[in-house]
Amino acid sequence: MAAAAAAAAVGGPQPPQPELAASGLALDKAATAAHLKAALSRPDNRAGAEELQALLERVLSAERPLAAAGEEAAAAGGGGGAGAAEEEALEWCKCLLAGGGGYEEFCAAVRAYDPAALCGLVWTANFVAYRCRTCGISPCMSLCAECFHQGDHTGHDFNMFRSQAGGACDCGDSNVMRESGFCKRHQIKSSSNIPCVPKDLLMMSEFVLPRFIFCLIQYLREGYNEPAADVPSEKDLNKVLQLLEPQISFLEDLTKMGGAMRSVLTQVLTNQQNYKDLTSGLGENACAKKSHEKYLIALKSSGLTYPEDKLVYGMQEPSAGTSTLAVQGFAGAAGPLGQVDSSDEEDQDGSQGLGKRKRVKLSSGTKDQSIMDVLKHKSFLEELLFWTIKYEFPQKMVTFLLNMLPDQEYKVAFTKTFVQHYAFIMKTLKKSHESDTMSNRIVHISVQLFSNEELARQVTEECQLLDIMVTVLLYMMESCLIKSELQDEENSLHVVVNCGEALLKNNTYWPLVSDFINILSHQSVAKRFLEDHGLLVTWMNFVSFFQGMNLNKRELNEHVEFESQTYYAAFAAELEACAQPMWGLLSHCKVRETQEYTRNVVRYCLEALQDWFDAINFVDEPAPNQVTFHLPLHRYYAMFLSKAVKCQELDLDSVLPDQEMLMKLMIHPLQIQASLAEIHSNMWVRNGLQIKGQAMTYVQSHFCNSMIDPDIYLLQVCASRLDPDYFISSVFERFKVVDLLTMASQHQNTVLDAEHERSMLEGALTFLVILLSLRLHLGMSDDEILRAEMVAQLCMNDRTHSSLLDLIPENPNPKSGIIPGSYSFESVLSAVADFKAPVFEPGGSMQQGMYTPKAEVWDQEFDPVMVILRTVYRRDVQSAMDRYTAFLKQSGKFPGNPWPPYKKRTSLHPSYKGLMRLLHCKTLHIVLFTLLYKILMDHQNLSEHVLCMVLYLIELGLENSAEEESDEEASVGGPERCHDSWFPGSNLVSNMRHFINYVRVRVPDTAPEVKRDSPASTSSDNMGSSQSLRRPKVLQRENSGTAQVFSLVAERRKKFQEIINRSSSEANQVVRPKTSNKWSAPGSAPQLTTAILEIKESILSLLIKLHHKLSGKQNSYYPPWLDDIELLIQPEIPKYSHGDGITAVERILLKAALQSRMNKRIIEEICRKVTPPVPPKKITAAEKKTLDKEERRQKARERQQKLLAEFASRQKSFMETAMDVDSPENDIPMEITAAEPQVSEAVYDCVICGQSGPSSEDRPTGLVVLLQASSVLGQCRDNVEPKKLPITEEEQIYPWDTCAAVHDVRLSLLQRYFKDSSCLLAVSIGWEGGVYVQTCGHTLHIDCHKSYMESLRNDQVLQGFSVDKGEFTCPLCRQFANSVLPCYPGSHVENNLWQRTSNKSIQDLIKEVEELQGRPGAFPVSISSETNLSKEMESVMKDIKNTTQKKYRDYSKTPGSPDNDFLFMYSVARTNLELELIHRGGNLCSGGASTAGKRSCLNQLFHVLALHMRLYSIDAEFNPWRKLTQLVEEMNSQLGNEEQQPEVPILYHDVTSLLLIQILMMPQPLRKEHFTCIVKVLFTLLYTQALAALSVKCSEEDRSAWKHAGAVKKSTCDAEKSYEVLLSFVINELSKAKLYREEGTQECAMASAIAWSPESMEKYLQDFCLPFLRITSLLQHHLFGEDLPSCQEEEEFSVLASCLGLLPTFYQTEHPFVSASCLDWPLPAFDIITQWCSEIKSFTERHAEQGKALLIQESKWKLPHLLQLPENYNTIFQYYHRKTCSVCTKVPKDPAVCLVCGTFVCLKGLCCKQQSYCECVLHSQNCGAGTGIFLLINASVIIIIRGHRFCLWGSVYLDAHGEEDRDLRRGKPLYICKERYKVLEQQWISHTFDHINKRWGPHYNGL
After folding, report:
1. How far apart are CA 642 and CA 1206, in angstroms?
2. Whole-angstrom Cα distance, residue 505 to residue 498?
3. Which of 308, 388, 1296, 1871 has the fewest CB atoms below 10 angstroms from its CB?
4. Top-confidence residue, 1485 or 1004
5. What values do phi and psi take at 477, rounded to 5?
6. DSSP string of 9-52?
7. How far is CA 55 from CA 102, 1065, 1630, in A?
8. 1065-1076 as b/e: b if 16+ CB within 10 A
9. pTM above 0.85, yes or no
């Protein structure tokens, strides 16, 4: 009924006029809604339905908004109106849904009925999610952070990841994950206890939503305009989508209301009747008609025809007449698949010069045209998906469609719809400009649908999913095929994909391929695929498109001008589109019952291969100089064979083709192996670097088990079934070294340059060794394979855990069972390797935790063959051998240079036994014999490597000899039998002892007569035709095949045998026929030059002579069994043997003797009559000379290499020591110590010009220094516990208790009450932004430095520093620096004179000090005369000032006052002294041995500062020195002038600052006696301050007690040196000043809690004075070069005091030490104390609180620390990665946190940028005066900002295997590495970031 009403309404009267509409809308929405709901609840609700329809029609009228938006919205005005209408419509909808109630309450009501069994949270790209392999059933399983943390995954193999394409949370879905992993919310299956939904709650929704969705679809139809041919219209599409944002969001909100609402939506979306009624476009509603027309146009133009034109110029309209294939066709027809007419010959060639593109017909069969042309949408869902695709998958739509998935009914409907549109998706994807984004969105959807096995099976059965997928893939690739140029270029019928096309280059195909792989991982689906012959044929057709793609042709003349990079695309395509589906299929062929599947695949694979050979016209010889690495068909065939034998117990021969096919099959894989050798021999060098890249990728860990492994396995299969002589000869022919295998000492190679011969021969032999020893597919179990792979990787280099996971080729299909990180991986790893924890090198480079092979692995498992197979870089083989050698040396197993060890192999699977025939064929024996002979004779181009391989092959042959050979049988045949050929039989054991007397070396000849004519005695063995004539019969028996086959074999063998003997030694060649360059045709008779060499050797005799040659001694071999007969009876041949060539020869001879008595006898004979090897008679002296020359050259080359290597390592070690910050021993000592009195002046070496000499006025020398502003001091706190990094909202860090803050407060307090100029002398600044000066200790002439800077400025190389800012690196040690500190001319010996102890009284000295301070020009240099030195001193002062920011320099109230500069200068000295103290650990207990002193530049710095300080003379009246040393009479003068602010009382002065002021005001060099005098005077003040502070701290009772106790003792003799007396006096004086009167009760309570004992008071006083004593001692150490004594912590005070001369030397230490004994009062103590106390009287009377606060100076600062970090990184990450920034209130894209103060900042965020400075840079200036240490939350890495440069420091969080995880790519749990954090903190405190970290770059204020 409702439907009828709807129809009537649609066709009914037009909606009312706008004016009426407006008044209608003004009605109360809620009331209307309530009324309608009531009307609809009645049993007869027709009226209500009609009324509602009319209302909706009016409200949701689609005409207004989008028309406006479409046409006028270009004008800004139009947009506003439309927006308002939209909002109004949405408001109405919300009201109607709620049926008059409040919308919020409605939402809550619906949520109550949500059976939340699934989480289903949908996220988009970049969301942080988790994956747990332990809980996952499907490899794609993922969880949102909330579900993950609420589930229990302890000990599981999980990781965190950043979603690439988006995804959805699978918690609660038991199809995808195990229930044990569900979180607390989704464990309960709650459907039972949820009440059923009341009907009227959702009734309105059922009426309103269809109209709403229809309205949305109308908008989508309206907004879509076909893109014009030239302009892509993304802009328009985005405009429409922006307008629709609120509507789609509204739908999305509905989905979030839970299950009840989702089922209503599902009904609406899938109901076909609704759709038909609303969208048919019938009736007279013009608007509906128009919209329907647009829909039809869109359908038509959607290339529901196959767009055949190449997408070259962006998007193009498909031409009208092209053949059409409807998308629907796939879903509808179950019949055979359609064909595409190749009618479109007018194909535009993508102007890519690729020749005419060929179209390929698909499997034949016809389709019903009506299915082809119509895409019939039957429901809202289908049309919505259509538009979603058309609009290229807008994110909002995708999220809405996915949010619905928890509804099961919807899930099925949607999956079917998705499949139905699959081909359309592919077309849209191909056309898209944003194919990357679009791919991600597609996969975001499909992964949710196809990971579910049940669903995938259903769709496969009902919608032909597999057919659709395969066909769509096939069509997709068809659009970019080109003619193959492999083999027969002109007539080739084969087509391959063109790897240069965008489709392949940009990986556009990956969404479709990944879906395919995904569904093949389900067994039920894969079985259907493997059973369906038609599908297999189509699929092999698809795979053959990749067979032979990306062909390489060897450039022979000039270098290619353009190196194409298409090979990336080719390898990726083969791996993704061919190999991964193959592995997916293989994973279902594991058991015997699946034999049938393998037979199917193998059958169609062979058919496809046969077609391919036909298509490229292949007969028997591959075309020369071309190679393709892509043979997916061969690899499919190989892998299925391997699986058949290994898992399915299939008989191998039943699936092998005939001999001819095997011969063809082996050619191309063999060609690849030979090409690899050629590439590594640099024969392809003209093809550029990319060909090397291909060779590397082919063996690289991600590709090797889909590329090289199947190829080698296929060759092994061929070798085990083909004639061995044929196979061996093919190998040497492919490797082009046949000509080399001649007995003659010289030969000509027609196909290979001489320089490549050696490496190609090595390549051929190595290949044979790999072929014969590799057992990966021939019988090893999975665990053995894993172990072998792991051992090989670890032997090359120590590896981190993650790189091992990456390097070990896992089975690419995730479901295969060997999951990295699974149990077997870890257990094998712990069995073969030891973990090396990460260590630090002094250079600061941080290491990762590494795994290194256990000793027994080196001893028994190191397998060079596996290493060679798996090395991407040749140097890794060498690295493995070096490590092996080092192990043997270290463990004392073998001292010399070992050869690669021989290793016994796993036994072969019976199916492959034939492989060993290769070792027992005459051809191989002839090759081995020839090579042994040549090596013995020192022929050219033979290396130790060749010998090693030859011996390896002989040993393999002995190990695998046929058992049946008995000595008798062999001896019967005797010598008569072997006149016709080289060797009598084919068994290596017997052939070894066979003597060969003469060999004829000659040019080829085919006539057998030649041999028969030769005299019987010499007719020894030319491998010749007689053998060839004898063999064919045998072959015919073996193979009932055609004659052609064996003729091919015989021909190849004949060629090979002739070639072997063809070339003759040049010396005896009368004529070299022209034809020798080409093999002569069998018919022609070439001229010959024959020579006969006398050889008279057997393999055994050659081996024994080799032994002599290698050992360099005659008769060195003596058969061991002659001494120890046991050897033969119980041979103890180790499975694994170390040693070099000599031991290898001995081992072989022993094995030969063991296997046959004849051999044993012959060995003994040879040893008896051994003679030095006779060179053949034919080698002339001249030739010998050339050989010697060659050898000498080789040796010289090796020597040169060695020297170069040594030089490089020396240079490296120098750089390391020079850069090493912590070991200054190797620095040039800066000062020459005062021990040599004959030197009158200090001598400096200039590191630029190399001259030495003193620093003079006109040519000053300077120290290389780095000036940097530092706030490290300001970070000291007074409590020991370091602050923690906040990880919850509650924790906060307040900087109130830092040193910098406390000093700031003090200065501003003083400035409030006292005279500004005097305040600036009472404290030091520089706690924040102080200038720290450090040097590497090297000196240079300042004029040399200037020219050095000039040359740097002109040097265009990009340095890591900016020369314009004065930065440079020290020319000697390359340490970073930015200024030069002039050395003051003068000597160090003077110091000694100045240091004579004088006996002047302290009073005299005080006077002298005062006079010296007042004398302005007391400098050796008068400032007035401008010398070079003074100029330099001024310029360096400028540098020091500019180092820090103005705010850290100017503290005065009157800007620019000289007092400011004065304060700044002495504070620089203070900063440097304080920092040095911190570097020494905060105290001076360790004495003078600290490193900081060695390179200190304080002496020079003091001179510069003093020079400038003396420009400001302090008015004598205000000089604090007088207040300290004289009693001032008039006390009242100060009180008199009230209006002027008073000076700072002396008790409020900072004593250390006073010290620096006094010393810098003195003329330099200072005399020791004056220094001591100043210190003594200042100590009295300091002690008084300590007493005053103590008195303020203690309680009233304590005070009165002390006051009396002290007063009693006042009359004693040394009252002035008793702290009790002094304390009582101070208390007395201060109580006059009313300091103690108003005490808060709490304070008393607090203070009195501490009971003061005399000991604790003494300790307090000492602690108060210690900082001053430390700084003073340091100063003395630098100024006078005295050593600091070391001491225990408790005696630090007394030791420093005596070192400073405060303690009289005769002081006895029996009774406990009292600090007061150091006092030496210049005036009567009580008088001066009275004077000092009276100064503060007037102040404290008014401001007692402040007065007290200023007296208590906190001097006990602890060392600075960075914030303490939590153990687990996840706690930081979870809190900060979603935290909003306090400045811009957004969640930053790159959040970072400062490790010094904990501030949270936006890295690179434009949101927080201020005046072109980004937030991190700004913060680094405010927090660290230019140094910032930030932890990047999303990367776990620490970044350092230093001024205008920055660097990545590394991470302090490591995983369980000691590795960093930068950018959290692996997402494993990370834990703090305390050692690393300590190193970071150390570098921060010692200001060495610049020196230790190497990779700095400018940040341009953008961080």
Report:
1. 49
2. 9
3. 1296
4. 1485
5. -70, -25
6. HHHSSPPPPHHHHHHHHHS-HHHHHHHHHHHHHSSS-HHHHHHH
7. 20, 107, 91
8. bbebbeeeeeeb
9. no
